[in-house]
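Structure first, sequence second, as always.
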């Protein structure tokens, strides 16, 4: 018997397969791009780490003893490679044209092939061009503009570190009433030696370069400062250096709690001994006489109150205070990235 209607044909047969194929192509392409983009971001991070480390290291080396362009290039290249997963990076430039400032520029180098581009993992199938990325860093060495430290200010009369010296003479810096007067950078007479500062926290004074700070009699220092003195003793007894960065004053006036100092800048002192009030034994007194003090003129005994040591050039990647550049360069600088 004849059917009154024609059977329906499946005109959509195979459409799902085409859709799946197209979708898979898109997904594979997107995945490939994601993998390669991730590789680019990873390369960029490695290059930035290398540029940062290189810039800081070159500033440290060049500030302390000076360096040639070839030496700076070698330092930057070594650290750029060390911060790359494949131990390969190009250093395009190490710019020393600005005093106490270094710019390092890095770019891609394939550690396996030496090529100046990234090896594509997937996206080459899409006929994309090879990727080359780069990074740069700027580091500077600048004197501190402020600080918080042991509450002493040293007179510029005692400061003996010239621009070309790495360290000064060992000397005794006595509490200021026991020192002769000297002439400041402005031609005024100021007391030599050191002075106590008002404390912002127990055994800590906060100061700013090119600013006036209040003095203190020092009568209340001892109990609060014993822990710091003991840390200096431990460092010296272990064969290390007890280093402290002190503000240096070039003007002074008043007396006692009404006194004041004008802070010129900051200098680092290699502390080798001292004698403060409140006792003749450690920690109040330490290595203040023979046999630890070889020059009798540097001994601090009897009624003497003082600190024994020498000024040194010192650079630190740890921040002592605020931003740099305000105080005079007195051989102590903070090394930091500024870009």
């Amino acid at each position: 018997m004849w059917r009154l209607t024609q059977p329906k044909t499946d005109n959509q047969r195979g459409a799902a397969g085409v859709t799946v194929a197209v979708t898979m192509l898109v997904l594979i392409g997107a995945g490939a791009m994601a993998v390669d983009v991730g590789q680019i971001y990873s390369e960029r991070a490695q290059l930035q780490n290398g540029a940062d480390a290189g810039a800081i290291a070159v500033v440290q080396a060049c500030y302390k003893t000076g360096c040639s362009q070839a030496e700076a290039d070698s330092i930057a290249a070594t650290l750029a490679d060390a911060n790359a997963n494949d131990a390969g990076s190009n250093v395009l430039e190490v710019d020393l044209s600005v005093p106490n400032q270094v710019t390092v520029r890095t770019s891609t180098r394939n550690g396996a092939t030496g090529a100046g581009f990234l090896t594509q993992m997937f996206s080459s199938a899409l006929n994309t061009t090879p990727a080359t990325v780069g990074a740069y860093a700027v580091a500077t060495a600048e004197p501190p503009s402020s600080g918080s430290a042991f509450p002493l200010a040293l007179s510029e009369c005692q400061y003996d570190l010239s621009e070309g010296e790495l360290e000064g003479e060992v000397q005794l810096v006595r509490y200021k009433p026991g020192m002769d007067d000297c002439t400041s950078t402005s031609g005024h007479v100021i007391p030599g030696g050191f002075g106590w500062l008002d404390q912002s926290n127990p055994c800590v004074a906060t100061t700013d370069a090119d600013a006036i700070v209040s003095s203190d009699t020092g009568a209340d220092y001892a109990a609060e400062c014993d822990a710091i003195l003991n840390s200096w003793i431990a460092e010296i007894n272990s064969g290390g250096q007890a280093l402290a960065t002190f503000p240096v004053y070039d003007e002074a006036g008043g007396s006692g709690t009404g006194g004041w100092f004008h802070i010129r800048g900051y200098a680092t002192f290699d502390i080798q001994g001292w004698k403060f009030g409140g006792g003749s034994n450690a920690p109040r007194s330490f290595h203040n006489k023979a046999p630890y003090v070889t020059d009798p003129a540097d001994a601090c005994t009897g009624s003497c109150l003082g600190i024994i040591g020498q000024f040194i050039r010192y650079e630190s990647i740890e921040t002592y205070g605020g931003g740099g550049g305000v105080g005079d360069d007195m051989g102590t600088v903070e090394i930091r990235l500024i870009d």
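Margin note: The first strand starts at residue 89 and ends at 95.
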